[in-house]
Amino acid sequence: MIRPEGQPILTAAAMRAAEDRAIAAGSSVGALMERAGAAVAEAVRRLASGAPVLILCGPGNNGGDGYVAARVLKANGADVRIAALADPRTEAATAARAGWDGPVAPLAEAGEAPVVVDALFGTGLTRALDDAVARVLGETVRAARLSIAVDLPSGIATDTGAELSAVPDFSLTLTLGALKPAHLLQPAAARCGTVRIIDIGLDRSSRDWSMTKPVIAAPTAADHKYSRGLVVVIGGDMPGAAALASEAAMHAGAGYVMLFEDHAASTPHALVRRAWSAEAFAQALDGKRLDKTAIVVGPGLGKGDIAAAKFAAALDSAYKLVIDGDALHLLDDAAFARIKARPTPVVLTPHAGEFNALFGAVSGSKIDAARDAAARSGAIVVFKGPDTVVAHPDGRTRVALGASPWLSTAGTGDVLAGTIATMLAANTFAPAEAGVWMHSEAARRLGGAFIADDLARMLSAVRTSV
């Protein structure tokens, strides 16, 4: 079994294409089913620790995987039984059913078991489960001490992560061949439990991958404050937000952080503070390296003419740029055209409400929505949330593994903006992804009931560990 970090993500259509390529290269649906079912059986055998196993089989190939798993488990001495929704309807699943020499009970008579395996429906489901089926699935899973979904929990939309019907919480999901979007996108991701990948020998080429721990270079003896990266934060009506972004940049490893702020705010002494004016801003950036400087605009910026002028000054500059919070509402198609013409990258960091206001409501996959937004804007789009997606203008996306729900508190987005700006200024590989990972890891280490100030400070420990 393969952990989900740093793995390709395949949609339902991409999985079908990968299977077609494998068949064209000499494999067969039956051979793929044998590999999948045998691997599921081995995982169940080890995790069940001798407890009785109930496998719920559907009429398609997901059910066929279940029949194979049951046969292999029984051959290895396991106490296993099957309850099926209907007779198999595919050639491969029919052959797998024929290989099972035990009884098959109707799904309505499934009863309970310590270990339950859901092989009803996997990738490609497009409609809700019948109420009776959803009820049996929910009752058996909730009664089990260990519940395992084969490929996806039944009732989940593969590509969007939507719940098509009521879905219980599983202990483990064994995804076949590759990650699917629903393993990472909410609300489905919360139902999957621990996710592990079973390699069945498919070509997993994809533009979409899950995030993994970044590699960030440590300072060397030759470094100084400017070579480690200069982050410039432009403040506004809510000074605490800009202060949080600044402090996050400092703790994330920036060599020099400068805050343009007209209002008093409690900040570290190491932070360089200046009063805002267009002239002071231009003077501060004069002669600074394009490759080692990043600007943050938006946290607490406010509205009105002064805010718009500050945003315009940031966009007019040639430096790397993180646009967050209030500044996102100042973007339009003309600004996108300017972003596309800039010599250095721009990162947008909208949460769902900001994203919908800027790009329109998401009606399908969050991954596709982020990808389209990046292409339209010419920027790297960090579509924030418990399932953050980072999309690049060239079509690549990276999806974060589940974030801490304790991040749902004021100021954590400001911390993320400062962290990403630091990664940009330091020329870190995949800077937006690195910033998202560090932000999430800081939250994980804090545990719970933290505030954004705690999150910013925890970045120091995270930064030294990567």
UniProtKB/TrEMBL annotation:
One GO MF term on file is: ATP binding
Enumerate the catalysed reactions: (6S)-NADHX + ADP = AMP + phosphate + NADH + H(+); (6R)-NADPHX = (6S)-NADPHX; (6S)-NADPHX + ADP = AMP + phosphate + NADPH + H(+); (6R)-NADHX = (6S)-NADHX
- Give the YjeF N-terminal domain ranges: 15-208
The yes or no answer to whether the keyword rRNA-binding is present is no
| Residues that coordinate or bind K(+) | N62, D118, S154
Q: Which GO terms describe its biological process?
A: metabolite repair; nicotinamide nucleotide metabolic process
* Cofactor(s) required, per the database record: K(+); Mg(2+)
Q: Which residues bind (6S)-NADPHX?
A: 61-65, 122-128, 151, 241, 300, 351, 414
Main function: Catalyzes the epimerization of the S- and R-forms of NAD(P)HX, a damaged form of NAD(P)H that is a result of enzymatic or heat-dependent hydration. This is a prerequisite for the S-specific NAD(P)H-hydrate dehydratase to allow the repair of both epimers of NAD(P)HX.
Which PANTHER family does this one have? ATP-DEPENDENT (S)-NAD(P)H-HYDRATE DEHYDRATASE (PTHR12592:SF0), ATP-DEPENDENT (S)-NAD(P)H-HYDRATE DEHYDRATASE FAMILY MEMBER (PTHR12592)
Which family, according to the similarity comment?
Answer: In the N-terminal section; belongs to the NnrE/AIBP family.
Know the name of this protein?
Bifunctional NAD(P)H-hydrate repair enzyme
Which organism is the protein's source?
Sphingomonas panacis
